């Protein structure tokens, strides 16, 4: 009988045993994350967005039953964030102000409810805080074309302390306060090949180069162009080009793009992201 008290008691006892087993494994996971922090020689958090993406894709692929997949993703995002906080001081920088409130919610949804959020007045300050190690990650708005001073142009240079794009948010359709907001996370970690990725390169050229000619040149250089944004200076133009796959900072294709016979003056890898899950993946 479904309402048999003895049957209900047995079911609740089984749930209690499952809860204890989950709790034991979470405690063990926390011990391992703390051990990783102790084993590191530096003070920075060991952040791997690509691995997190692969873990979530694997869990969603093996998931069965009535428990909602969206909630599964939410739980694991909190687990990831808690593990990062056990390694060292973990915090996120984003923009302040009413207009940017969805970015703060997006950051909290992705990087954990208890994660410290620094609300800063400018994208330049967000990038600076990440570069100097005062924040682990920055969350900035999605790029748009013809912005007067786009934040991504500050990544168009080489150096170990230059923040790069590391993730696109949200990784799964939101179920809480972020609404329809989207953004890019930036940090100092390198993009990992997850098998389904997008990368960004910044290309510098002059005003005489048309967008169609630039697209042909980039594709001839071995990249599959998906989208681009641009901004113009007094004598040059910068394009943020989104391409398929991963592009390392020392990718030889970047050097070939800026060859002697090219209209491209310089090209830089500025990171990338593992493609997020879509709504169909969570049904």
UniProtKB/TrEMBL annotation:
Start and end residues of each Chorismate mutase domain: 2-91
EC nos: 5.4.99.5
Alphabetized SUPFAM superfamilies for the sequence: Chorismate mutase II
SMART domains referenced in this protein's UniProt entry, alphabetically: CM_2 (SM00830)
PROSITE patterns, per the entry: CHORISMATE_MUT_2 (PS51168)
The protein's name: chorismate mutase
Organism per entry: Rhodovibrio sodomensis
């Amino acid at each position: 009988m479904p309402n048999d008290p003895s049957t209900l008691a047995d079911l609740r006892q089984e749930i209690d045993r499952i809860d204890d087993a989950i709790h034991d494994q979470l405690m063990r996971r926390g011990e391992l994350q703390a051990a990783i922090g102790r084993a590191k020689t530096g003070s920075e958090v060991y952040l791997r967005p690509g691995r997190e993406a692969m873990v979530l894709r694997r869990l969603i692929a093996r998931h069965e039953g009535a428990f909602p997949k969206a909630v599964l993703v939410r739980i694991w995002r909190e687990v990831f964030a808690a593990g990062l906080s056990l390694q060292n001081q973990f915090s996120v920088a984003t923009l302040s102000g009413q207009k940017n409130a969805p970015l703060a919610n997006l950051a909290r949804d992705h990087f954990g409810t208890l994660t410290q959020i620094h609300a800063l007045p400018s994208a330049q300050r967000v990038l600076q805080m990440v570069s100097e190690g005062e924040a682990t990650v920055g969350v900035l708005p999605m790029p748009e074309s013809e912005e007067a001073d786009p934040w991504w142009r500050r990544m168009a240079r080489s150096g170990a302390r230059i923040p790069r794009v590391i993730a696109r948010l949200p990784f799964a359709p939101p179920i809480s306060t972020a609404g329809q907001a989207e953004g890019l996370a930036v940090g100092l970690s390198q993009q990992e090949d997850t098998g389904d990725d997008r990368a960004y390169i910044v290309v510098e050229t002059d005003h005489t180069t048309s967008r169609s000619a630039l697209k042909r040149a980039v594709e001839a250089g071995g990249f599959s162009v998906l989208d681009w944004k641009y901004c113009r200076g007094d004598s040059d133009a910068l394009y943020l080009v989104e391409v398929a796959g991963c592009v390392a900072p020392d990718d030889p294709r970047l050097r070939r793009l800026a060859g002697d016979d090219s209209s491209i003056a310089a090209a830089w890898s500025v990171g990338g992201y593992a493609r997020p899950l879509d709504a169909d993946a969570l049904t």
